[in-house]
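Journal club side-thread
Mid-discussion, someone asked how the predicted structure for our own chain would compare to the paper's figures. Pasting it here so we can look after the session.
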Amino acid sequence: MIFRKSLFAICALVVSTYTIAETVKPPTLKEIMQGLRDNLVEITDGLLADDFDRIANGSMGIAQHVPIPASQVTQIADVLG
């Protein structure tokens, strides 16, 4: 009986995890750019206040931002030339 309950709990966890993963969508280009803007503001504020931790945090946000999807990079390149 305990085995059945454990098996049911594991199956429910797997199904719910799969469902949650399916609903997560990648950020849009606008959301990526807004995040980069927020990082730049954090760097600027850190420079103004001599807060090196804040500068480092903003810099890491820029360095590790979500990559722009290749299809959107191509579209931007086509528009900008």
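Post-session note: Residues 2-23 form the longest helix (22 residues).
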